[in-house]
From TrEMBL:
<dbReference type="InterPro" id="IPR052018">
    <property type="entry name" value="PHP_domain"/>
</dbReference>
<dbReference type="Pfam" id="PF02811">
    <property type="entry name" value="PHP"/>
</dbReference>
<protein>
    <submittedName>
        <fullName>PHP domain-containing protein</fullName>
    </submittedName>
</protein>
<dbReference type="InterPro" id="IPR003141">
    <property type="entry name" value="Pol/His_phosphatase_N"/>
</dbReference>
<dbReference type="GO" id="GO:0004534">
    <property type="term" value="F:5'-3' RNA exonuclease activity"/>
</dbReference>
<feature type="domain" description="Polymerase/histidinol phosphatase N-terminal">
    <location>
        <begin position="13"/>
        <end position="77"/>
    </location>
</feature>
<dbReference type="GO" id="GO:0035312">
    <property type="term" value="F:5'-3' DNA exonuclease activity"/>
</dbReference>
<dbReference type="InterPro" id="IPR016195">
    <property type="entry name" value="Pol/histidinol_Pase-like"/>
</dbReference>
<dbReference type="InterPro" id="IPR004013">
    <property type="entry name" value="PHP_dom"/>
</dbReference>
């Protein structure tokens, strides 16, 4: 992968990481401890559709590491999945909290509708077990897949997705998602800066430029899924549209995904994000 050049002094920031409040494996405390072990100067926690990790993470981080409050909102445009990162938003902002509670309720409703379909299909699972499996996290298909395995209705996770939960499965229901414009507006109203996460190969330039016209402030250039060609493409687009270039490891779990800090950006990126958010240095 093409990495941003290391600045003198080498203060590095990983701006994309998940905790067990979404689909990560680690608690906020354990993630902060890992960030210190990895000698990061700054860490952004960007859980999917929740800010619950940010309070405990701030307590754990204290002055030892700069903790950047973040989120990764699930959004969709037609068939295109667009994840929007928000940095330096105020996790206590009431309209944000309310919208996230409603979003989680929509996800719960979808999970229970899938449970109902599975019952009709002769593959019943215990809804309480599905909810318990999600723990503090946002409920989703992986938890339904686990329940199908436990109940003996599927041989493997793959089998559960192929037969029931995947796009072509018999119990498939699309996930709720924000409209990208709503996600960008929500992030900004909460005092944050919006950044398009890992556009990868699927998102056309035109869509990114449209989002920029709607107020998008940045694009995630450095990400485990971006090869050198992708990095060049997004850098050119960022230069053309005045977007802030960010990056991170999209860390989920030790051993499972790219390790925390293995994709990082110079701390100078934080300066630009703070300027854009109006946060004092
Ligand atoms: P959801 O957000 O509830 O739609 O669930 C999406 C998650 O399901 C993804 O992040 C993956 O972890 C998991 N997933 C999707 N498709 C598959 C698959 N074919 N096999 C295993 N896991 C999958
Ligand atoms: Zn995730
Ligand atoms: Fe994502
Ligand atoms: Fe992510």
């Amino acid at each position: 992968m093409d990495r941003p050049p290391a600045p003198p002094g080498g203060r590095r920031a990983d701006l994309h990481a998940h905790t067990h409040f979404s689909d990560g494996a680690l608690s906020p405390e354990a993630l902060v401890a890992l960030a210190l072990e990895r000698e990061l100067a700054a860490l952004a926690i960007t859980d999917h559709d929740t800010v619950e990790a940010l309070g405990p993470a701030r307590e754990a981080a204290r002055d030892a590491i700069e903790l950047v409050p973040g989120i990764e909102l699930s959004s969709a445009l037609g068939g295109l999945e667009l994840h929007l990162l928000g940095y330096f938003l105020d996790p206590a902002y009431e309209p944000l909290r309310e919208r996230l509670v409603r979003f989680r309720a929509e996800r719960m409703g979808r999970a229970m509708a899938i449970v109902e379909r599975l019952r009709e299909l002769g593959a019943p699972v215990d809804p309480d077990e599905v909810v318990a499996a999600a723990g503090p996290g946002v409920i989703g298909r992986p938890h339904l897949a686990d329940a199908l395995l436990k109940a003996g209705h599927a041989e493997t996770l793959d089998d559960a997705f192929r037969r029931y939960l995947g796009r072509h499965g018999q119990a498939f229901i699309p996930r709720p998602a924000f409209h990208p414009e709503e996600a960008i507006a929500l992030i900004h109203s909460a005092g944050g800066v919006s950044v398009l996460a890992h556009p990868g190969a699927l998102v056309p330039d035109g869509v990114i430029e449209e989002l920029a016209a709607e107020g998008l402030r940045g694009v995630e250039v450095w990400h485990p899924q971006h090869n050198a060609t992708a990095v060049r493409r997004f850098r050119a687009l960022a230069a053309k549209r005045g977007l802030i270039e960010t990056g991170g490891s999209d860390f989920h779990a030790p051993g499972r995904s790219t390790n925390l800090g293995d994709v990082s950006v110079p701390a100078s990126v934080l300066v630009r994000l703070k300027e854009a958010a109006g946060v004092p240095e």
